[in-house]
Design brief:
- The complex is a heterodimer of chains A (441) and B (315).
- Chain A has 441 residues and is mostly helical.
- Chain A is built from 18 helices and four strands.
- In chain A, 73% of the residues lie in helices and 2% in strands.
- In chain A, the strands form two sheets. A two-stranded antiparallel ribbon of chain A has the order 1-2. A two-stranded antiparallel sheet of chain A has the order 3-4.
- In chain A, helix 3 packs antiparallel against helix 11, helix 4 runs antiparallel to helix 5 and helix 17 packs antiparallel against helix 18.
- Chain A is globular and about 65 Å long.
- Chain A starts with a helix and ends in a 5-residue tail after the last helix.
- Chain B is an all-alpha fold and 315 residues long.
- A two-stranded antiparallel sheet of chain B has the order 1-2.
- The chains are: A mainly alpha (441), B mainly alpha (315).
- Chains A and B meet through helix 6, helix 12, helix 14 and helix 17 of A and helix 3, helix 4, helix 9 and helix 13 of B.
Chain lengths: 441, 315
């Protein structure tokens, strides 16, 4: 949303209909989040699917984490390689808080435990942010990487706070709920996660419209000019970093509640990388981009990792493709269609899309087949799995599946190149038309 | 004294190994502004290639072929990947190499398995060269020292005595000016990138059997090489050399000296028990702090002296 759109919104003081028109997508997403688990509900035993609930909870808390990462990367242009330390430390704080509540040495309703994680994240965000925001760009990235490695190493070294390799176990059933909920079932926990995710997302969205959020954009876009206007970019970066630590800590607190254990993994470099991958795949330039990316990454992580050992490879390849061909991410791709939609010619893209879909699916199939074959021959055999395409068992030792994969990948790739040329021409024509009609913003 | 000498030699070996990795990275970072996350991956690939080649042909051909393979991969990455990403800025290039490092790790896991491979020191070099106060010094470490010293000489000569070396040196500081003078800067970039990855590959060949050849070796080595590069300073190979040796010595000596803050306090008549506040921090032995030291250095240098030891500009 542009600055004068905000102005207009404030001046107009919209009624209910206008509000509904603007926020229906968010409301729909919230309702969908509450309804989705019922798709996996087992009516014969009257139980929720534990797998689905865990996966959806993971999407919720990871999207808070990824969005808080994007407060640095997308909003302020600060690429961090150690964002997980804020997430993880928030998680440890929340776990210790819950243990203290359980032991009776303090009182806090379970509903507010994520807030304890958030405050922990804020405190550590202020501490690390003070150090890291002395620099920006590549130097900032390296400082955060150093801090990340440092905290990860400390997590294995100091038993008292981090619990070493075993981590800190906790118990969310503290009996201190203000709503009278015990949080012994995962459905109750899921509702808590959805509520906190929604609160955190709305808060982060509103933060982008505060003067601080705007100044963060300014220091990202034109560092010198932001200085000339009279702001101290370092302070802007610092506040933004600390605040993003707060939200990452909320994500960590939710993690502690969902899994009831916080381990060294939560501060490790791989966790930071997940936020980075999710944000970039989803699109760092649009607010809800990281949300999209998180959904993709977690689905791949939980869904594909059941079938295959190579889910991280797929995420990595997707990431590279995004970096090379679509720096705006998935959200950017969607946003590029806006001008064409505005001139009402989006329908004309349907056939070109179908035409690139066929070779696209073919080459993806070939690629996945080859990767799975390779991964199967080294890792899968040891795990005693059988290799299947669809329902047909195939012997990976024979050349047939390999040839099939290679042909599908190369043939599909060449065909895709051919079709992409036609698509490009069509696209350029439509964009040119949109430009001529003044629909480009 | 005995411990000191042995550690000094070991630190030197490790430091020279670090230099082989860091020299390429420092050239790439100073010239192209690309913080190459995939550099340590080239180190890992070098080790794995050498493992496979030495199983089929032998160690000595591997010493030549594996780095060349890595160099070819590096050239391909630069020409078909980085150049395309370049127009999206340095951060995009950095992210690109980061993604590559992830993919390479996965591919290595899929090709050679999750567990370490038995990449061993060649039989011809597996004997003690001399003894220092009763401790054997393996011939292979001397060989590593020799190779890295030769490499250091070759880099130095190449950069100061050849035409392309002079162009590279100029492009370190003023790439636009070099381009304006009619040199093919993209080709210089490709050359440097390929040479850097080949060097990293060579470091992998001789370092893979010195350390452990496993899929995680890139992600453990990577940050340390970054520390060396930042410590040495952008645009300075000499600084990089000194930083490598220092880092090698720091890490080896930290492992040998088994003391903690508590021991220091005992000198002043203070005993640390489990009741003392922060007793965990005080009782951590130096070898474990030694593992943290590179990262502490990285943060401190970037915050207080981003120019590094002998750098010509800020990181």
């Amino acid at each position: 949303m542009s600055a004068d759109a905000t102005q207009r919104a404030i001046v107009a003081a919209p009624g209910f209909a206008a509000l509904a028109r603007r926020y229906w997508l968010w409301a729909a997403a919230f309702v969908a989040a509450l309804l989705l688990p019922w798709l996996f509900f087992d009516w014969s035993t009257h139980r929720h699917s534990g797998f689905a609930l865990t996966m959806l909870s993971e999407i919720g808390l990871m999207s808070v984490f990824a969005l808080s990462f994007n407060m640095q990367m997308g909003q302020a242009g600060l690429l961090s390689f150690g964002h997980a330390i804020l997430f993880g430390l928030g998680g440890y704080c929340a776990a210790h808080t819950m243990n203290a509540v359980k032991a009776g040495s303090m009182w806090l309703p379970v509903e507010l435990v994520p807030l304890a994680g958030g405050l922990g994240g804020l405190a550590f965000g202020a501490l690390f942010g003070y150090v890291a925001t002395q620099q920006r760009a590549t130097a900032f990235a390296m400082i955060t990487m150093g801090l990340g490695e440092l905290v990860a190493a400390c997590a294995l070294m100091f038993m008292g706070f981090f619990g070493g390799e075993g981590g800190i176990s906790t118990d969310r059933v503290t009996g201190t709920s203000v709503l009278g909920v015990s949080y012994s079932s995962s459905w109750e926990v899921y509702c808590l996660v959805v509520a906190w995710t929604a609160i955190a997302i709305v808060a982060m969205r509103l933060q982008t419209q505060t003067p601080l959020g705007r100044m963060a954009n300014a220091t990202r876009d034109n560092f010198e000019r932001a200085q000339f206007v009279g702001y101290d970019p370092r302070m802007v970066r610092f506040y933004q970093f600390a605040l993003s630590g707060f939200f990452a800590g909320i994500g960590g607190g939710l993690y502690a509640i969902v899994y009831e254990i916080v381990t060294f993994d939560t501060v490790a470099a791989a966790k930071s990388a997940t936020a980075l991958l999710a944000t970039y795949i989803g699109g760092a330039g649009v607010f809800f981009g990281p949300l999209l990316g998180t959904i993709v990454v977690v689905l791949l992580q939980s869904g594909v990792s059941l079938l295959s050992n190579a889910w991280l490879l797929y995420v990595g390849v997707l990431f590279i493709i995004m970096v090379m061909y679509a720096p705006g991410g998935l959200a950017g791709i969607v946003a590029q269609h806006a001008p064409i939609a505005r001139i009402g010619r989006l329908r004309e893209l349907l056939v070109p899309y179908l035409r690139i879909l066929v070779p696209g699916v073919l080459s993806v199939f070939g690629f996945v087949l080859l990767i799975e074959l390779a991964s199967f021959t080294t890792i899968g055999v040891a795990q005693g799995k059988a290799f299947k395409i669809g329902f047909h068992a195939v012997d990976p030792a024979t050349p047939f599946p390999w040839v099939l994969g290679a042909v599908a990948l190369i043939g599909g790739g060449l065909w895709l190149r051919l079709e992409a040329r036609g698509f490009r021409a069509r696209w350029d024509a439509l964009i040119a038309d949109a430009k001529a009609k003044g629909a480009m913003l | 004294m005995e411990v000191f000498l042995v550690s000094l030699l070991n630190g030197l070996v490790y430091g020279m190994l670090l230099f082989m990795l860091a020299s390429g990275l420092t050239l790439i970072l100073s010239m192209m502004g690309v913080l190459n996350f995939a550099h340590a991956s080239a180190y890992m690939l070098g080790a794995y290639f050498a493992f496979t080649i030495s199983q089929h042909i032998g160690f000595w051909p591997a010493l030549v072929v594996a780095p060349l393979l890595c160099g070819a991969i590096g050239a391909a990455i630069e020409m078909y990947g980085l150049r395309r990403v370049h127009r999206n800025g340095h951060i995009a290039e950095l992210l690109f190499t980061f993604g590559l490092a992830l993919i390479i790790e996965k591919v290595v896991q899929m090709t050679w398995g999750l567990i370490p491979v038995p990449y061993r020191i060649p039989a011809g070099l597996d004997f003690p060269l001399f003894t220092v106060y009763g401790t054997y010094f393996p011939a292979y470490r001397a060989f590593m020292l020799l190779i890295s010293a030769l490499m250091f000489g070759a880099i130095w000569l190449g950069l100061t005595r050849t035409r392309i070396g002079l162009v590279i040196q100029a492009a370190l500081h003023h790439p636009e000016m070099v381009g304006a003078l009619g040199h093919n800067v993209p080709r210089v970039f490709t050359t440097v990138f390929a040479a850097g990855t080949a060097l990293a590959g060579l470091a992998g060949v001789i370092g893979g059997n010195y350390q452990v050849t496993e899929p995680a070796m890139a992600f453990t080595m990577g940050p340390i090489v970054f520390v060396v590069v930042v410590f040495g300073g952008l645009g300075s190979l000499t600084g990089c050399f000194i930083a490598s040796l220092l880092m090698g010595l720091i890490q080896t000596f930290a492992v040998v000296l088994d003391y903690s803050m508590a021991d220091l306090l005992r000198w002043f008549g203070l005993t640390v028990t489990s009741a003392t506040p922060f007793h965990e921090v005080l009782m951590v032995p130096l070898p474990r702090i030694g593992a943290l030291l590179p990262y502490v250095l990285l943060v401190l240098i970037l915050v207080f002296k981003p120019r590094g030891l002998m750098g010509t500009r800020d990181t």
